C-alpha cells in the first residue's frame, strides 16, 4: 500500500453511494434498458444480489492481498504483464471520468446555464478537484461524510414535497413483462456500477476487520437501491412513463414540478446544489484513483507528482468529448447494449481471471 492512510467503513460506503447515485440524478437512465416500464423499481431492488455477485472476484482478491489494490495485485499475480492490466484500468478510469465530465457539462449547459462556455465550467471545477486530490483520500472521505446528509436529506425532502402530485397507478400492472426482462434490467444496472472497482482500489485503506467488509458491500448496494427507488417513484409517478421516456433530464424536470400552496416552489436550486456536490465528489474520487493507479503502476513513492500532469490530460480529453460529440452519441455508448458489456470486462472478467491465476499459482495469504 502506497499511502499510510485509513478510511472508515462508513466513509467508503458513502463514497461509493454518492458517486453512483449522481448518475441517476443526471440522466436518469431508468427506461433505456429492460424492462423499460413501471417494473424498473423491481430491477433496482434485484440489483442488490446481482451487484454482490459481481463483487465476488474483487472481494476474494482482496482477501488474498489485503494490503494491495487492484493495480498492485495485478502485478503480483502477473508480474510485468500486470503493468499492462494496470495501465488498462487507469485508462478505464480516465475514460469513465471523461464521460462523466461530458455528462456534467451537458447538463449544466443544456438545462441550467445554456449561455455559459463549457471551458469556463471545467476550468472552474477541476482545480478544486485537484486540490482535494492533493490532500489525499482521507480528506475526500471526510467530504463524503459531510456531503452525505445534505444529499440524502435533499432527495427525501424533494420526494416528500411531490407526494401530493404522485400517482402510484403508474406502477400498475405489476410485472407486466417476464421475470427475465426484469432480471436483465438488474444485470444492466449492476454492470453500470463501476464503483465496484473503486472498492478494489480503496479496500487496502479500509480501517475495519475482514468480516465487516461484506457489510460494506451489502450496505452500499442496499443504500443505492433505496435511493434509486425513491428517485424512480419521484420521476415515474410525477411525470408518467411516456414523458419520462423522452426527457433528457427527467429527475431535474420532476423536481421543478414542486409547488406546495403556491409558497414552496422552484426548489430545483436545491436539487442542483445536491447534484453539484455529488458530481464534485465523483470527479475527485475518480481523479484520485487515476493518479494513484499511475503511481502504483510505475512503483513510485507518491502519487502527488501525477496530479497536475493528469489535469492537463483530463481537461483536453473532456473538452474534446464535449466539442466533438453530442448527447445522442453519448447515449448510444451508454445504452444497455454497449456500456454494461464494456464495464463487465473490467468489473468481473479481468478480476475473475486474476483470482484464478492467483489460486493456480497459490499466491496471496490464503495459500492452500
Structural account:
It is a single chain. This protein is mostly helical and 368 residues long. The protein has one domain (9-360): Amino acid/polyamine transporter I (Up-down Bundle). It contains 15 helices and 2 strands. It has helices at 9-27, 40-64, 70-78, 81-112, 118-135, 137-161, 179-191, 195-202, 210-239, 241-246, 250-255, 268-297, 307-324, 327-333, 339-360, and strands at 259-260, 264-265. The chain has a two-stranded antiparallel sheet with strand order 1-2. A hairpin with a 3-residue loop joins strand 1 and strand 2 (264-265). It comes from Desulfosporosinus fructosivorans. One of its GO terms (biological process) is spore germination. The chain crosses the membrane at residues 12-30, 42-62, 83-104, 116-134, 146-162, 182-203, 215-239, 272-294, 306-328, 340-360.
Topology at a glance:
Elements: H1 9-27, H2 40-64, H3 70-78, H4 81-112, H5 118-135, H6 137-161, H7 179-191, H8 195-202, H9 210-239, H10 241-246, H11 250-255, E1 259-260, E2 264-265, H12 268-297, H13 307-324, H14 327-333, H15 339-360
Antiparallel strand pairs: 1-2
Family: Belongs to the amino acid-polyamine-organocation (APC) superfamily. Spore germination protein (SGP) (TC 2.A.3.9) family.
Transmembrane segments: 12-30, 42-62, 83-104, 116-134, 146-162, 182-203, 215-239, 272-294, 306-328, 340-360
Protein name: Spore gernimation protein
Q: Would you identify the CATH architecture?
A: Up-down Bundle
Outline: globular
Following the backbone from N to C, one meets helices and strands in this order, namely HHHHHHHHHHHEEHHHH
Counting helices, strands and paired strands, the structural category is: mainly alpha
- What's the total count of β strands? 2
Write down the CATH topology: Amino acid/polyamine transporter I
Sheet having the most strands: 2 strands, antiparallel
The level-1 CATH class? Mainly Alpha
Measure the end-to-end span. 24 Å
Rg for CA atoms: 20 Å
Strand content: under 5%
Give the total of domains: 1
Largest sheet: spatial strand order = 1-2
The level of helicity is over 70%
Given as residue ranges, the uncertain stretches (5+ residues, pLDDT < 50) are: none
Going by CATH, the homologous superfamily would be Amino acid/polyamine transporter I
